[in-house]
Amino acid sequence: MTYCIAVAVKDGLVLTSDSRTNAGIDHVSVHCKMHVLPTFMDRKIILLSAGNLGTTQAVLDSLRRDIKENATTNLNTVRYLSEAAEYLGQLSVEKQQRHANAGQSGFFPAATFLLAGQISGEAHGAYLIYPEGNYIKTSSQTPYLQIGENKYGKPVLDRFLKIDTSLDEVARCCLISMDSTMRSNASVGPPIDLLIYRKDSLSLDEYYNFQDDDEYLIQVRRVWQEKLSEGFAALPDLNKQDCKAFEPAE
């Protein structure tokens, strides 16, 4: 399984991904799910991936080949991130369809992507590309997108992320979301990749890679647990005056 987050706020982007792949209990390995494509200097485009690893790698190979061979449509020729999302969706569907009828029982070639970045002169943003090739983007009401094992890490994002949240706060929130997911699902695991992109910078120089024994990650985990315990202990007791006998329905 996988867990990836893309957050787009006023000041820029924060992207987070785990690195564990799981094809059964005997086939657990580590693969980076954050991919930076070799585009022109006037743009920065990052992909996060979840789903079938073979499909993901085939799509990435095609993206890089199209750039290298200067194909009519590639990540250097698109004018908008939405065009990049549509192009990525078409490639993904093509790769999935190639293997969908392979006749292997229990084989699922589906892959899901998060595409984020900025093209000079346009706003930064993040898009979720579904296996079917269609996509959605972040909004001022919902400034984040998730793929993979998203349910455990969603509550903290819902509570704390707003469109005007600072990038440093977003980064800490994403780490808590990731840690909550790792705690509840063993198929999500380190190393954890974290990338902060500040709008209009066209620079990717704020990248972090956290191993499970990273001192900062351990500190964040410990403080979060302590504050949760303090909050739980401070909850008011049930009002016994509201208590009454339970009568089963007839």
UniProtKB/TrEMBL annotation:
InterPro entries: Ntn_hydrolases_N, Proteasome_sua/b, UCP009120_prtse. Signal peptide: none annotated. It comes from the Bacteria. This is Peptidase. It comes from Methylomonas rapida.
